[in-house]
Amino acid sequence: MQLKESIESVREQFRADSDPFPTDTQSVESLRVKYMGRKGLVAGLFAGMKNIEDKDRPLAGQLLNELKQELSKAFEANTQGDEESSAEDNVDYSLPGLTFPIGHVHPLQQTMDEIKSIFMDVGFSVAYGPEVDDDFHNFTALNFPPEHPARDMQDTFFIDPETVLRTHTSNVQIHLMEDQDPPLRHIVPGRVYRNEAISFKSYCLFHQVEGIYVDKHVSFADQKGILEYFVKRMFGSNTKMRFRPSFFPFTEPSAEVDIWSEKRDQWLEILGCGMVDPEVFKSVNVDPNIWHGFAFGMGVERICMLKYGIDDIRHFYQGDMRFLEQF
Ligand code: DAH
Fold this sequence. Notes:
The protein is an alpha+beta fold. It is built from 12 helices and 10 strands. The chain is rod-shaped and about 120 Å long.
């Protein structure tokens, strides 16, 4: 039978071609195509089956299948361990999955969010205002005399003689009262800028939350109640606090709030506050004989540092994951 010889010759040819068995994928592939491909030698032999006499056909089929199996086995044996053919066998299903690094909220933003939610719970709404503002809103309307040291080039970043990067969020008190008639009750979170030497305790930019509450019968007692509520929620209900007389051009009387630190055995200032000065009301055409209000302002970095025992303000701005991942 002629086919039988052809089968033998293909077998011999393959044995020669595959000794040694190629190691690079490309040569393995061309070997596979040559013998096992759709138009390969084995397929050619199968095609020859149609010329076989009926009586010889079962034997021919058997021999052909044997050849095909021998070749398949050779390919299988020699490509085991290759990435392609064995990827499935090498999967270790007990390995933990890949985890994606998940970002989280910056400690300053967390602190800001906490301050916001405390005041929103007692009826304050959140407002925002410009970081680049004119001298009027940042200083004049807040009753800063023209020669006040806060206007000095050393503290304030001037864009031009009339325009500044706001030094505090108090400028938004003025915008709010210009834009809407009292009563009003807002807190104002935002960035402020000061031209100060950078150190562990001061940075050229930081964040404040301003508060302003104007109505007909707002008193200093209301101010004390609200701020005590804030302090106890922020720092814990056992926190000892005090109001200490102070001065700000835009409040009269003015005070600063301190909290007692057991750890440091000292009072620590956390915010400034006071009753809105009648001069401020006049600068925005609000009648100080009808309307009264209190205002306060706090540094978010400072609150966050006190709350978590952070000792250097620069940590907030360095983006060091070892610091940030602690929060
Ligand atoms: N603007 C003040 C500062 O930057 C903080 C402040 C004090 C704001 C008293 C107020 C206030 O609204 O009443 O230091």
